[in-house]
Amino acid sequence: MKAATTAAGGRQMQRSGHHHQRQYSDQFLFESHSSNTGGGGGKWMHSLPTSGLNVPQQVEYSRMLRRAQRGVSGEFLLSTEPLTPPISSRPSSQRKASGDVSPSELSPGILDLHSFDTELLSDIRASGLYDSPTPFGNARGRGIDESEPSFSGNNQIGKASFIPENDLSTSFAADKDKLGSVAKIKVVVRKRPLNKKEKAKKEEDIITIDHNRKFLTVHETKLKVDLTEYVEKHEFVFDAVLDEDVSNDELYHETVEPIVPAIFQRTKATCFAYGQTGSGKTYTMQPLPLRASQDILRLMNRAYRNQGLQLFFSFFEIYGGKVYDLLSDRRKLCMREDGKQQVCIVGLQEFRVSNVETIRELIEKGNATRSTGTTGANEESSRSHAILQLAIKKLVDGSELKPARVIGKLSFIDLAGSERGADTTDNDKQTRIEGAEINKSLLALKECIRALDNDQTHIPFRGSKLTEVLRDSFMGNSRTVMISCISPSSGSCEHTLNTLRYADRVKSLSKGSNPKKELSASFNIRESTAAPLSSVLPNLSMPESSNNEATYESHRFGWTKQIQKVPPSFIVDPVPTGREDGKLVSFYSNHSSKSRGSSTPEEYDLSDGAYEPDNRSSRKAESYPAPGFENKTQRVAAQARQRKAIDVDNNFLNPDNDLNDLLKEEEDLVIAHRRQVEETMDIIRDEMKLLEEADQPGNQLDSYISRLNTILSQKATGIGHLQARLAHFQKRLLEYNVLVSSFAP
Ligand SMILES: Nc1ncnc2c1ncn2[C@@H]1O[C@H](COP(=O)(O)OP(=O)(O)OP(=O)(O)O)[C@@H](O)[C@H]1O
């Protein structure tokens, strides 16, 4: 047995079979607040009552019961899952005093990830939910006020003090309006401090963050062909960028706190952490559910008091493509999709909770059960995707006899760390298999994001269990917060760039939901630049008539690529202040005075300093002066020429990057292609099953067949897009080969 304790959490790890199980000291949940600057520090937890489990209402799925309740038709559940355990086998705390168990306690232990359209929300109303600057009043930083009537099983359900109809609708509309101002997808980046190992290896901190917490720069050290070092700057803009000194409390205020009220408004909210192994995902995610629970309970007990709401807690992990219940001794669960493409986790235990202490205990229990292992970058690496869900439900007609309906849900997903193949050479076979599985699911997630980004009709959510679960995070009335965790060390540069590009991609999904955000999202500079941000910023305010397509064009493989409209007219040294003394050599400054007059790729002098961004800039400045266009046609034509040259420039002038990009894209395309075909087969198989089921007298086979046809034609379109991109890719590869041959002696 191997055990290790980390500095941050006092977490202990034990090897058990092929996976470890985490154990957490009580401290870990407090510890994250020890650096709290937001008032109350770590006290808020200590003020909680120390009662034990508060009658957790364990509910399990019963297919029989569900079928009886909902009728068989339309169901597409293939489960042979265990039925609800006999009452006698359950702890006494779960039984009613009388010994009777109401049917509602046997509510389907099924996580219906899409059951949001079932509840009329006109009676869910919070007075002044958004009225105060903080929806949680002055209670932040304290425990739940126990003087408030707590929510329990037989409270005032059905006797809710409803507000008069007209008042209610106005208020609901206002709340909805305010909810609309919360970004649909928020992307926050968090940088962790250098750890001991990195310091010992004398690795440098290569991330700088702008004081306004929006801009982030990665300073990548690269080698020229003559082996001289230079620094390439990669600048990014996100909704928020949190530096290493930002506490978990501040992180909570920035990320989850704004979306908590949304889950009372029929919204699915998801917060997930993404990043390379050891970048701080678990550290970041662990404190959040508890803080959120506190706020949810407070809202339930105050703003939504007497509305008959209940809070349910579940916690499961996806390990090796399989789903395990972390609150039920890692019992294996099945995920099923019903006829309405609603994803359900069959047999998942849900606990009804009414105080933070219970939730804390459940979180600890789940975390201790989670699979962990050791990777090159993290001794105690999460080898699974952990999903913790807080669901708000409401009893139907105030009756305990009917299963409660989901009003809203908040999911926390701690994704397993991404690893490059090159990082896994030290790992044992099991760890490598885990790594491959993790990477596969993260790739599937990327494919979904790519598909959403391209507005494809079919989103390949079925690519992995993870994407099936995340499906509702991206669809319909949802709010998503992605926290990208990055390591600051020079040794992790490639990983960090990958994470940031991934985050940028997710960010672009929020386009349309908020025009302001769109602007900032489009503005990310993914490639190195010799121009300071300020020299590019004014371009963003150019009027629409200046032809947006000329500014942003679709990258050759679907990425939106920013093109600078007006070439920077001056050269800056991209090496950050204070770095000149170190081993980072200012490459650009050596060449800043050079300028070439060539305007076509053929004329580029590739013999000397061919990778110099400054030369590029000055060349562009000479070739395509921004002012002086006589009319719109000329301007557009010139911009198109400029775009073409810059694109060629970007693509050609850094062959190493280009080759890597091309190879990555090729790999992605091939995998995507194969997956498309597999998915088509899956869909056809599913549909055939449906057809078999439907092939009963009286059923309408025609509608099934027409649905099948629609899906097939959507698939054909998807594959058509892929082929077009593949052709484009091949053209690029040809161009690249031409460039490579020009280097040949
Ligand atoms: N912001 C931070 N401040 C201080 N320490 C941190 C921070 N983020 C992470 N750490 C520390 O870095 C180590 C790795 O963090 P963590 O386990 O959260 O990484 P991870 O991304 O979840 O890794 P994996 O994907 O392998 O599970 C831990 O010891 C953690 O305490």
UniProtKB/TrEMBL annotation:
Pfam families linked = Kinesin
Q: Which SUPFAM superfamilies match?
A: P-loop containing nucleoside triphosphate hydrolases
Q: What is an example of a GO molecular function annotated in this UniProt entry?
A: microtubule motor activity
* Biological-process GO terms, alphabetical: microtubule depolymerization; microtubule-based movement; regulation of cell wall organization or biogenesis
Could you tell me what this protein is called? Kinesin-like protein
Query: Region Disordered: start and end of each range?
Result: 1-49, 76-108, 131-156, 570-632
Q: Does the keyword RNA-binding apply?
A: no
Concerning PROSITE patterns, the annotation shows: KINESIN_MOTOR_1 (PS00411), KINESIN_MOTOR_2 (PS50067)
The record's listing under CDD domains reads: KISc_KIF2_like
Keyword Nucleotide-binding found: yes
The entry assigns this protein to a family as follows: Belongs to the TRAFAC class myosin-kinesin ATPase superfamily. Kinesin family. KIN-13 subfamily.
List the keywords (alphabetical).
ATP-binding, Microtubule, Motor protein, Nucleotide-binding
One GO cellular component term of this record is: microtubule
Q: Which organism is it from?
A: Dendrobium catenatum
Ranked from the top, the taxonomy reads: Eukaryota, Viridiplantae, Streptophyta, Embryophyta, Tracheophyta
